[in-house]
Amino acid sequence: MAKAVRFYETGGPEVLRYEDVEVGEPGPGQVRLRHEAVGLNFADIYFRTGLYPAPLPSGIGTEGAGVVEAVGPGVTNVSVGDRVTYTGAFNTLGAYCTDRLIPAAPLIRLPDGIACETAAAMTMRGLTSAYLMRRIYDYKRGDTILLHAAAGGVGLIVSQWAKLLGLTVIGTVSSEAKAEVARAHGCDHTINYSTEDIAKRVRELTDGVGVNVVLDSVGKDTFEASLDSVKRRGLIVCVGTSSGPIPPFNPHILGLKGSPYLTRPALADYIADPAEKAALAGELFDHVASGRIRIEINQRYTLQDAAQAHRDLESRKTTGSSVFVL
């Protein structure tokens, strides 16, 4: 019998239930997938709390990797026995399970050099990092970026990728232990936002100019500092809200802060085109397989431990990537 984590009401980690489930055979456009590893992402918390509404009862999780065991009518992009990975949103919801039916369209074949556990730890974070580094801004060698949550899963990948592009990386962290992790993965400077004034320190490090780009996955707690850290006509990328949504503000404030550009991108819009998705995934896989980018899996859980995994993620105890191993 297959196992899955589901929730019947929104709320805290305690609403997650580990259950037996029937999987069945794939229908048109579907495959049956046996997971080897499943990714843990902050978006999972958004679904559990209802910030991202899902019909209840619902499965949870949007990222996983494993082996195709059966294909339904009309499936041509993958075959039985293929090792695949995926990430998405509502179209892939339900990843916290041993086996599942899933649309074939989001699946990405894995090259031989990428293990399923590595793929589950990096597909969402890696593709996010890929568009942040390769699509959202025309970086020039010598540019400086401010990277919030630099010791997180996306942060560690972005830091390494940024160094490949010749960028200077200023990373924010919540502890000295996380600062050490961030520096080991490419951060030139770290700022402990628990004890330091982020914007003041950024201005000191940039001779008063500010950074070309701010990559802000924290949201409410860092947005003001992001505004005060970016250079005139720079770019602020609000890529997540781990501390809570950014409060409403009058756009007039942008004119008082050096006329920065502001965007809130979604990964789905950067991988909607199959060719662009393949290009980003190919570049990501190449960097990882060659060792130019290391994927750090620093937390491993079983599906039975899903509630604890969510507690650890919400309390910012984690660094790098977290996965469920099956």
From TrEMBL:
- Annotated EC: 1.6.5.5
Which SUPFAM superfamilies would you find in this protein's record? GroES-like, NAD(P)-binding Rossmann-fold domains
Q: What InterPro entries does the record point to? A: ADH-like_C, ADH-like_N, ER, GroES-like_sf, NAD(P)-bd_dom_sf, QOR-like, Quin_OxRdtase/zeta-crystal_CS
Name the domain of life: Bacteria
- What Gene3D superfamilies does the database record attribute to this sequence? Medium-chain alcohol dehydrogenases, catalytic domain (3.90.180.10), NAD(P)-binding Rossmann-like Domain (3.40.50.720)
Domain Enoyl reductase (ER): start-end pairs: 11-324
**Which controlled-vocabulary keywords does the entry list?**
NADP, Oxidoreductase
Extract the GO molecular function terms from the UniProt entry.
quinone reductase (NADPH) activity
Gene label = qorA_5
Name it.
Quinone oxidoreductase 1
Task: Look up and give the organism this protein is from.
Answer: Cupriavidus numazuensis
